[in-house]
Amino acid sequence: MKPAHPDAAPPADAAARRAIRPVICYPVDALPPPDIVGYRAARDGWEQVGQVLVPPREARCFEVPAGHFFRIVGVDGPQVGDLNLWNAHDLGERFFSGKTRALHGTHLSTGDRMWSSLPHLRPMATITQDTLDWYGFDEWGGSVHDVIGTRCDPYTHRLLSGGDYHHCCHSNLTWALARHTARPPAEAEPDVHDVLNVFMCTGFTRDTGQYFMKASPVRAGDFLEFFAEIDLLGALSACPGGDCSAEHSSDTAACHPLRVDIFRPRAAPAGWVSPGRSGYGGISGRLA
Ligand SMILES: [Zn+2]
To answer: Locate the DUF1989 domain: which residues (predicted)?
Structure first.
């Protein structure tokens, strides 16, 4: 947090230094834009092949083959979800929240991709529809579907409140993955990673740069739709924060289930091929 009264006096040219225009760190103009029209055309005649209901304050795993779609749907009322994605055949390749943020910005919507961890770095999923894309950024700089938070977890909760709470998203995701992979929770826990905060409305305060949340604009029937670029294992937690208007890491908030619907298109989108891993192979070839 920036101090209100910094120790260091500003230099004589402080205003000039501050006036330098920013440049985008990672311009994505060079990337081929996702063919959203083509993806959406592939939905014609699709068949729903799976459905997973995630109970409030719990998480569930689901699998989506490459070339299928899935939707995360609000069911009874405003509810935020924490999403993890893995390569279904290699849990070492998982969603890379930080690089996705660097590429696409703080909040994701239609046309953005969820990129995988190094050394793989390929699109795992492409967002093909977002019924909350009307929200944009509000007057506090808040928006939905962030990749700036992590996931609520019992360690931070204990650090800040001194208490223990066992249904944080981190715990829920850990238990869901443990059950799905038939491993003890302590073994599955290191595979849980920073999430896409589905439906959560968040930002950074302008004065102190602190992470904030506010009541999600999501309502029953809203959904976020993804196209699976590779075979995916997903885990979704229905956050104990509910709509995250007040607090998380407790049983205080009103919570609702979330649903994952999985669809198989009749044919793959025209011209689509499942992306390969990054072509860079030089990490051990350089002169140390
Ligand atoms: Zn949570």
So the answer is: 54-233
Number of domains in the chain: 1
CA–centroid distance, 240 to ligand 1, in Å, is: 6
Domain of 73 in residue numbering reads as 52-223+234-264
As a whole number of angstroms, the distance between CA 278 and CA 102 comes to 17
Q: Look at residues 155, 151, 163, 174 and name the one whose alpha carbon lies nearest to residue 239.
A: 151
pTM score of the predicted model: 0.95
Condensed to tens digits (0 to 9), the pLDDT of residues 191-242 reads 999 999 999 999 999 999 999 999 999 999 999 999 999 999 999 999 999 9
Distance 235 CA to ligand 1 centre (A): 13
Distance in Å, CA 14 to ligand 1 centroid = 41
Tell me, in angstroms, the distance from the centre of ligand 1 to residue 60's CA.
14
The DSSP bridge partners found for residue 227 are 69, 126
Give distance in angstroms: CA of 242 to centre of ligand 1. Answer: 8
Q: Note the pLDDT tens digit of each residue in 254-263.
A: 899 999 999 9
12 is a domain residue: no
